[in-house]
Structure to design on (805 residues):
């Protein structure tokens, strides 16, 4: 395997890490407006993700940084081409990030409510927008010979991309509900478990439609028929298992399955892209690939050494911090946020 | 307004705004970590109170610093895609390493620190805050490595019309980073110290929690002196490096049009006429510029007229005939003086404060105490003017000698998009600024004793209005 191919895989892994981890805290954030019955329950939900959401978000920043370093042309084409959607993602992440810190600072219901709304929209819109972004990337965007993208409204927003956005949002919501079932007690835990059970069916439904749309509107099943079919079968199996585990109250396993579901969905996108990183809807010859959009061999080598050295430490202390905060969050303890 | 100008304004606005929070975060978390160390070593509860109180103020600031930083990583690709294509191979690496090495560490251990008071042993809890501090410093190192490449490109070769890294070691041993990094870090320490000193002074004036604020003030004054003196010394080093690597920036910062005599005088005040390329009026301090540039009392500096000719013969083939290599002179000249002026005021205030402390009259000297709260703004102003001088003084280059700003901008992004995003950023920045100041003032008014009470309301029944 060449280094630029390895970096494509690594970036895929970083995005899997991002959706697996931030996926559940997005899910918790978006469910707080309808799952919680009181301010108290909302606080419990926020505190359940309080210690970890910030580090989870770093996976996205690392993904962006890795694309910049390993594939400068991918970074330049995507970030300038998706200007407005990315601006929206940024504004949501800003509002969300400060609301964690701000929400409990003034003890009035009105104040907390304002920041809880910010947290809600800040958790709902980014997975939707990123879903739109990745699916429209799969479909192909108007990329010209000079690698610059000039997309119009219908390139961003169409049936396929909207369905992609919706699907990713539902996947994150289910993952968040499974996390809450794992991390809370009593009534809240029962309600999130019951909703998660219903959500699995919605997720499976939306995934089936997504596969059909992908079949007709993209070429991923034409270029990679067998791997994509295997992934689709695995996704169906994983969510079926998730349903079983939720029913049997095997909460840790249910959470693992909804995380695997997200990981497999991200894999389906990256497998479908390879070796392209951006597909041109104008001409195949204008596609950006891991070969024509990557950094030089030396730069990739340096980055590989750095990543291989640091990543084990990152994974190590991340796992340790989850271990430290393994207990369920209840109203009997001191709530920080 | 055209897209290039808007993109430049956006870069200036988002970067300056972000850099209000960065130095305060770096400086304050270091001070908080020192306070917690004192607590763990001395087991004196006043240090725990200090850790919690200043730690809360740090967290409010840190939250805004983090979220405004995300814009920075996205902005290069969004507004400056041609720059990103040309230089991503070299410039992207430190950014990716920053995320991998620093952001993960900061964000994981800040979570452990905030939520870990009861779950971690005192030593592990202390280690967490030191790792957060280390994370902020490492983050500074890698982002300044990227910036240093723009000031003084090294460790690359040109291949297929773009810069490619060929020597990582020289990228991180770049002379520029080793004058820039200490300057920014000591500046950050001074920022944190003046923040603590100013708030302590305000409370000492009001005679609130005198013991608590006196202890905070003493620590802050020592760190303030180390920070501000360190900034001046490393700034001196940086100026000398500048004379060698970016003489045009130095000439603009000093308002020198014609080559200076040897020894060169330093201009403290000048009325600059950029159209006629001369200064109408100057107040000069003899020998000082030679000393500033070479650490000796002779030696001349090249003026902008000479440098323009030199640069034209060197770079015109690459960037086009008739390019103006002289940056906005007045901005560079005055931001340099304002930076130095505020820095000098900070050194002076620290020395006076320490002197009063030794005489034992610090908490009774009302004149001095009244001076400190407004002086919280000094390091912020000095930091901002420092960056304006560094970045504006480099114009017309994005990467010195390699790529100009007007060829760096995204060719496919409309002026309307940039304007829209600029307006959105300014709106959200304004809201954040108000909320942050409101929360900080609130925390300060509540004082160090209030934190236990502040968090109680979550335990109450939601229909119970006691907390409201």
């Amino acid at each position: 395997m060449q280094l630029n191919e390895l970096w494509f895989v690594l970036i895929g892994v970083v995005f899997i890490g991002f959706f697996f981890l931030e996926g559940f805290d997005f899910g918790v954030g978006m469910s707080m407006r309808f799952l919680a019955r009181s301010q108290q329950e909302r606080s419990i939900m926020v505190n359940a993700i309080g210690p970890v959401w910030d580090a989870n978000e770093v996976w996205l920043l690392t993904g962006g940084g890795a694309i910049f370093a390993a594939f400068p042309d991918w970074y330049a084409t995507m970030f300038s081409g998706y200007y407005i959607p990315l601006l929206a993602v940024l504004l949501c992440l800003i509002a969300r990030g400060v609301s964690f810190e701000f929400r409990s600072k003034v003890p009035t219901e009105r104040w907390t409510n304002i920041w809880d709304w910010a947290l809600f929209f800040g958790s709902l819109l980014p997975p939707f927008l990123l879903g739109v972004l990745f699916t429209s990337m799969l479909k192909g965007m108007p990329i010209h010979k000079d690698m610059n993208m000039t997309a119009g409204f219908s390139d961003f927003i169409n049936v396929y991309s909207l369905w992609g956005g919706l699907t990713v949002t539902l996947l994150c919501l289910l993952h968040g509900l499974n996390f809450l079932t794992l991390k809370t007690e009593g009534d809240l835990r029962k309600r999130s478990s019951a909703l998660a059970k219903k959500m699995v069916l919605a997720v499976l439904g939306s995934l089936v439609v997504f596969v059909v749309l992908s079949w007709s509107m993209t070429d991923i099943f034409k270029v990679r028929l067998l791997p994509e079919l295997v992934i689709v079968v695995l996704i169906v199996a994983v969510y079926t298992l998730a349903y079983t585990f939720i029913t049997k109250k095997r909460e840790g396993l249910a959470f693992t399955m909804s995380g695997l579901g997200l990981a497999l969905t991200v894999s389906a996108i990256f497998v479908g892209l390879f070796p392209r990183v951006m597909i041109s809807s104008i001409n195949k010859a204008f596609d950006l690939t891991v070969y024509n959009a990557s950094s030089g061999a030396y730069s990739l080598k340096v980055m590989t050494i750095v990543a291989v050295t640091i990543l084990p430490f990152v994974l190590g202390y991340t796992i340790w911090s989850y271990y430290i905060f393994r207990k369920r969050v209840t109203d009997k303890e001191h709530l920080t946020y | 307004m055209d897209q290039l100008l808007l993109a430049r304004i956006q870069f200036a606005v988002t970067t300056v705004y972000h850099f209000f929070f960065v130095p305060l975060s770096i400086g304050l978390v270091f001070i908080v970590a020192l306070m917690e160390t004192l607590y763990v070593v001395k087991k004196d509860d006043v240090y725990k109170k200090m850790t919690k109180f200043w730690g809360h103020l740090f967290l409010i600031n840190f939250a805004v610093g983090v979220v405004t930083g995300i814009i920075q990583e996205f902005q290069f690709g969004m507004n400056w895609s041609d720059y990103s294509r040309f230089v991503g191979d070299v410039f992207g690496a430190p950014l990716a390493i920053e995320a991998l090495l620093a952001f993960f560490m900061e964000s994981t251990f800040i979570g452990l620190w905030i939520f870990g008071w009861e779950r971690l042993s005192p030593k592990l809890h202390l280690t967490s805050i030191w790792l957060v501090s280390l994370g902020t410093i490492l983050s500074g190192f890698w982002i300044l490595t990227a910036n240093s490449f723009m000031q003084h490109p090294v460790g690359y070769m040109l291949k297929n019309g773009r810069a490619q890294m060929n020597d990582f070691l020289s990228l991180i041993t770049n002379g520029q980073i080793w004058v820039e990094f200490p300057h920014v870090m000591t500046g950050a320490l001074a920022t944190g110290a003046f923040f603590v000193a100013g708030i302590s002074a305000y409370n000492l004036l009001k005679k609130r929690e005198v013991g608590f604020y006196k202890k905070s003030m003493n620590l802050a004054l020592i760190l303030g002196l180390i920070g501000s003196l360190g900034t001046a010394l490393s700034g001196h080093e940086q100026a000398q490096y500048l004379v060698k690597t970016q003489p045009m920036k130095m000439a603009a910062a000093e308002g020198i049009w014609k080559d200076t005599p040897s020894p060169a005088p330093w201009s403290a005040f000048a009325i600059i006429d950029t159209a006629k390329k001369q200064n109408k009026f100057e107040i000069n301090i003899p020998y000082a510029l030679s000393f500033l540039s070479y650490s000796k009392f002779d030696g001349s500096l090249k003026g902008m007229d000479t440098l323009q000719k030199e640069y034209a013969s060197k770079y015109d083939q690459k960037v086009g005939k008739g390019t103006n290599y002289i940056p906005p002179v007045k901005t560079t000249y005055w931001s340099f003086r304002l930076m130095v002026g505020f820095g000098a005021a900070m050194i002076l205030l620290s020395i006076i404060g320490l002197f009063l402390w030794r005489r034992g009259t610090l908490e009774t000297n009302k004149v001095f105490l009244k001076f400190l709260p407004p002086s919280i703004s000094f390091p912020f102003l000095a930091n901002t003017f420092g960056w304006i001088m560094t970045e504006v003084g480099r114009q017309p280059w994005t990467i010195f000698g390699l790529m100009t700003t007007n060829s760096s901008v995204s060719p496919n992004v409309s002026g309307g998009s940039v304007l829209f995003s600029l307006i959105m950023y300014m709106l959200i920045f304004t809201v954040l600024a108000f909320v942050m100041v409101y929360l900080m003032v609130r925390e300060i008014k509540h004082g160090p004793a209030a934190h236990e009470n502040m968090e109680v309301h979550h335990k109450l029944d939601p229909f119970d209005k006691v907390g409201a």
